[in-house]
Amino acid sequence: RKLIRLIILMKKVTILTPPEYKGLVLVSLGKEKVRQRKHVTGTEFEGLEAPVEQKVDFKELYQRVRTRLLEPLGLDLNEVTRVTPSTEELREFARDPEGKVDSLIKEADSLISKIKTSQEEVHAQNNKLISELQAKLEAEEEDLNKAKSELIKQLENIDADKVAQYQERLKLKTRLDSLSALEPDELKNCFAVGVVKTDFIPQMNEYLKRYPNTYSKVSELNKEESLLFVFGDDDSKKWIDALFLVYDIRDIFDVLDPADVLLVLDESKRQEAIKKYKDRLGNLEKEAIPPESETPEEKELREKIEAMESEHEKRVTDLKEEYDSKIKANEELHKNQLKDLQQVQKKSYGEIAYYARVVWMYSRKRTHVLRGKVISVIQGYTPDNKINDLRKAVEEVENEVGERIFVEVAELDEDDRHAPTPEKDFKSEKLQPLWILTRLRGWPGAEELNPGYISVLVFCFQFGLMFGDIGQGLVFLALGLALNGKYKEGMMKYLFALFVPMGLAAIIFGFMYDSIFLYEHVISHWLHEAHIALPFNYPIMPNPMHQTGELMNLIFLVGALELIFGSLLGAYNSFKAGNYAGMIGEHGFGMGLYITGLYLSASTMFTEGLDIMILVGNWPFMLMIAGMLLSFVEPIVHSLMHGHGIGGMEAIGEGIGGLLMTFVEGLANMFSFLRVAAFAIAHVSLSSAGVAMGGAIGSEIGGIFIMNIIALSFEFVSSSVQSIRLLYYEFMGKFFHGEGMRFKPFRISAPKTASE
After folding, report:
1. Could you tell me the residue range of the domain that residue 214 belongs to?
2. Is the pTM of this model over 0.90?
3. What is the C-alpha to C-alpha distance for residues 427 and 425, in angstroms, rounded to an integer?
């Protein structure tokens, strides 16, 4: 029997496609993630071949594709643009997948060989041209070097004469400076004299200052070098010798010859020698050519060398341009052929990527496809809100192949009782974790109501009754708003999402109880002092401590309404599942009537006293009896509806069991709701305990603060646990079985690369 869409959000989808387009359809559906696979059912498809009967080993075939095509070609299926093969090629693949793969391998090998041959021809011709160019360039270089070598030798001879003149002037100036600087009485104390870099002189002076009996004289030779004389006693000579060795300073007798030393001792001869050296040095400087200046001969030689190099560069440039044009002409000659081959290669790689993806999908997924010679049949389940996406995915394939593909969307029938269902969509990423309340109880089946929203509302309503406090509710609401969405997994993800509706419920019932951080009647006193009159009695809820009887009566009413609502939902689920007899039993109208009569009878006892005769004679008691009788006759009616008669003792035994379960379970469920009143009283008691503790410790605020900590921790946990218990057992137990399957859409992820 068909199930209507008011409660079932799933559709059964059947797709009929030619076998050659099966892969395209599956890839498109897997990309959209809109369909969960199922075995194909239906008498009209009994003659088709099931996947288990097909002879192709797609795992082995994919290994062949990967090792013979993907890895040698270096193809990454996540990057290569897939190209859909022609209809004839798709049919060939559908008829013989292994043969088509072998054909692809041969074609790829042949294509690679052609491209390689064409590229090698181009490279060989280019290498030949490059070798010719290299030989000509080497010959040009050799001719240039030979012509330049003679000119360079002439330049080197000129430079050698200039260097010799400079060395002679330097030696003469050193002797002149030595004679001028040294006094006769200083000669005996002069340890060394030498040419040092002017930059080193400050360092030398720093070292010499360490020995008081040592001093120096400096005579500048040029901007970079100076003549240094060092004087001292015998005690410092050894140390100074080591220092001179480091700085490469020559001994005085290495600078002055013995004749110069004798001249120093004779003052008159010393002055004559100084004058003679000055005149000679002046003549040499007039005749000498400075090292940095250039003679006309040098200039002419250098101009010849530059002209030769310029001419050489021009010939080299001309050769390179000539052979570059030859190489380009050679590449252009093979360009069109290579371009055609590369276009074929690109298309071939795209088709290989398509076949590889399809073969990989067949090797990893149980596709549940029935196949015949003319058609392939694909079936699955799709949520109502994904039907358009599914049709769009199929239309993409139709547009690609230019043919129609049949799609049938049908309601679920008796064979689809265990169809998967999606989780409830809360329309918000931050509220979606609230689905945990339903999921912990079970997964809704296709034949029952999805209680996603209802479970959140009932849970928070019960929590607010037990934990009604504006201030404490604001604490949990603030925590929920601040931390909800911060955690992507784990219990914190769900806990902080639940804090938001739980905090709101605590605030609402805190207003109704008139309680803020365990301070009672704060709002009432403010309204009284402000002379504000509300159109209703305030506080709205009975005070748990002072109006316990009224609170318990209210809680009984709340419990009765929840149980009756749950029973009606159970009857609704039975109706949608086609179990009409189940509508009147212990999970339907039978339990609802019994709970109604039980609550009204209890109310009569509270108002008129415990009089058994009056209780039994009133109509509410008759409702209790009627409810139990309906639970008793449910299995009998079920047997009659299925043509088995009354069902004998088995049906009667089941009826007695149903009657007793209705009586005991309904009574236990009603009294179970008293825990709501108990925890509401416990919450208010913390206020009195806080005042008492404040008196004991001398600080009322301190006592209330401690009690608030207890309420925000221990009592919060206790109230939450009791709310979940009432939700799962008392309420959802009346209609929710939780034996469904989760909707897991067929999807195609990217295959791993060889490196992965």
Report:
1. 114-349
2. no
3. 5
